[in-house]
Amino acid sequence: MTLISYADFHARSLAERDAFWAEQARRIDWQTPPQQVCDVSRPPFARWFVGGTTNLCHNAVDRHAAKRPDDPALIWVSTEVGQERVYSFAELQAEVETLAAILVAQGVGQGDRVLIYMPMIPEAAFAMLACARIGAIHSVVFGGFASVSLASRIDDAAPKLIISADAGSRGGKVVAYKPLLDEAITLAAHKPARVLMVDRGLAAFTPVAGRDLDYGALRTAHHGQRVPVAWLESNSISYTLYTSGTTGKPKGVQRDVGGYAVALATSMDYIFGGKPGETYFSTSDIGWVVGHSYIIYGPLIAGMATLMYEGLPINPDAGIWWSLVEKYGVTVMFSAPTAVRVLKKHDASLLKRHDLSSLRALFLAGEPLDEPTARWIAEALGVPIVDNYWQTETGWPLLTVANHIPGVAPVSTRFGSPGMPMYGYGVKLLDESTGEELTAPNQKGVLVIEHPLPPGALQTVWGDDARFVSTYWSSVPGRQVYSTFDWGMRDADGYTFILGRTDDVINVAGHRLGTREIEECISGHAAVAEVAVVGVADQLKGQVALAFAVPREMPATPEAARALEAQVMKRVDEQLGAVARPSRVLFVSVLPKTRSGKLLRRALQAVAEGRDPGDLTTLDDPGALAQVTTLLRG
Ligand code: AMP
């Protein structure tokens, strides 16, 4: 068979867009087939598979349960509480229907929001799928976020019901969720009518009378109840997921039903090469987009078993993930560079102790993959390491190598580059100030996507179409294109390299954080007058947050400075969560600003990373940067 090049395949996916996606849409079950593949009549919005009715839960669970009821669907392993459970497709469907029945009995229906604030336990998966089943919109908030972050998301999503648990566990330490949730509900203006509590018996709590419901008791009461799937028009909302941007207010990335299902089904085949009956293991968390797409929906839609893991990668030892690969015959694995860097600090022989012959590839995403990390894991595993670049907004990989497309010549990977634009994405590099397209190799520009975004990408910002347009589609002069807010560069062979963010978003251990949110939290401390937070390079986490604060009164001694620093960090822990805690809070008398008062973040970041801060002609007070330099040396 003669093979076509990937570049030709990609070009066809754009030139014959509707034919391409109509073909992909056959991968899922439709109750009513779509009448129109893509409605582009109102740019920059796009509507996929218009008129078709389908359901994510049906495609992820029911259709497999009907054919292969006893095959494993959800494998749950917790090294935190020392438990393992395997749910077949039939068992998973029963649990999902039970939870759906509980939701329905509480008056939750199509279009209602359900906020999920849970650790990595099977009930979290049941909760997401139960919402999808009845057409309720889920909004999962990462369990590592604390009360203030959670409160702002409660207010934005305005959920009818919240599903939570008494506690998570991290490294053997119980992390109580209920006090954080209660505090968040107190802070929020919107009050959910009901809170459904999963009691793991880890942290005792007192239920709020008239509001809190006990999942255990309701599960017994509703077990065995059947809840038919709600057939939803393809453009109905499946979920919102909050992500950080330039402003302090998080954006609810909103996704559809049909487009998402088709995009995931296609990616599971073309990109991941996953087959029904096999096992997929993603080490992410349901609080992140990878957890939505590649712990829950993607693998299940593809008919694979998905392995959900609660625990650290190094507990009981750094071989735990490989022992799971061996035990459950994992064929496709998905993780983040930061996790590999953690493993790399441990004995590589832990890896060799296990039979990893089932594993075909390891996919890594979420942050830049550095060469030493890529080489170490490639040598240790002896399987392809596939870097893939995407965002919460896109829902599935934007740049990678897709080596499972029939009739298409394989593409080799190149260290330092996640790869090439995926089918369906009209990716361009543009000059930031003129908006002109950069076509010559090795030029740095803003990575953008042309309208329409492919299926699976965000529909809009929840409740705020204007923000969707003004944030994503209005940053390049004279052109309505979607900005990724990442710098990119393409080499002569078409490999794209990611060169960092164009905005104030930082990436700590693969977690996306907005520096503004952290600044707002710190400046709320009574002793702090002003603060700047920047992301600086870190060997293990990729980046860490570093805060420079102007105190109302300079601490008199180093001990006093340390004490204030500890207070500020505690405030961040309690309000935003430990993920957002800066590695240091350094006190300065003045921040580097331009004469017009604009904070020179890039200069601050450069000095903190020991680089040349560049052109400083606009700097108002040259002493400001000198002070930072001296402090950092200290
Ligand atoms: P999130 O929305 O949390 O997935 O974060 C998306 C951002 O993470 C992107 O805009 C990039 O800045 C960064 N990112 C994700 N994957 C990669 C990758 N493979 N290489 C480089 N940067 C990445």
From TrEMBL:
What highest taxon heads this organism's lineage? Bacteria
The UniProt transmembrane annotation reads: none
Enzyme Commission designation: 6.2.1.17
AMP-dependent synthetase/ligase domain sequence ranges: 62-452
What are the UniProt keywords, alphabetically? Ligase
Ranges where the Acetyl-coenzyme A synthetase N-terminal domain occurs: 6-60
Query: Taking every annotated instance into account, which residue ranges of this chain make up the domain AMP-binding enzyme C-terminal?
Result: 517-598
Q: Which SUPFAM superfamilies match?
A: Acetyl-CoA synthetase-like
Name of one Pfam family that matches: ACAS_N
- This chain's protein is named Propionate--CoA ligase
